[in-house]
Model the fold of this input.
Amino acid sequence: MDYINNNVAGRIGPTSDEKCYGLLIDGAIEIKQPRKWRKNLVCVADNGEFGAAAYVRDEYDFERCSSPYEKRQLRWFIWNKVEKYID
Done:
């Protein structure tokens, strides 16, 4: 799984709220948790002191992010620019 720490304006902050805001101001669209994998899908997980914005590249990554055992707060986005900014 690849992670996103930048957008067109530069470095995105470390918290999950900052990750989400950074995606939104760069054109990402927040969606409800999808039932199946979609192209350009990003999942932001709240890990407490920091957030992780993950590029959900394929169905395997989607299954990992959408596990019924996942207890972290997750927010989902479609971002057409995601492949430009993966680490």
